[in-house]
């Protein structure tokens, strides 16, 4: 599958990747807390560390700071 061939510009390619699990390197895990089992288990949302770090000093510190996480999952149990 050559997805690049269907995207004429770099802007279109970035938009495709932003909205795709392709090349994602981290996942938000939502709903591991109360009621998650009743709702069918936790939901996983793919994301890209570089996008999160570029947009937020908190995520930048989380991924690149002295106590940076190497986990591919970020748990948000109450969401």
From TrEMBL:
Coiled-coil region(s)? none
Q: Which PROSITE patterns does UniProt cross-reference here?
A: BTB (PS50097)
* GO BP annotations listed: neurogenesis
InterPro entries hit by this protein: BTB/POZ_dom, SKP1/BTB/POZ_sf
Q: Residue limits of the BTB domain? A: 24-79
Gene3D superfamilies per the UniProt record, alphabetical: Potassium Channel Kv1.1, Chain A (3.30.710.10)
- Gene Ontology CC annotations of this record: cytosol; P-body
The name this protein goes by in its record: BTB/POZ domain-containing protein 1-like
**Species, as recorded:** Carlito syrichta
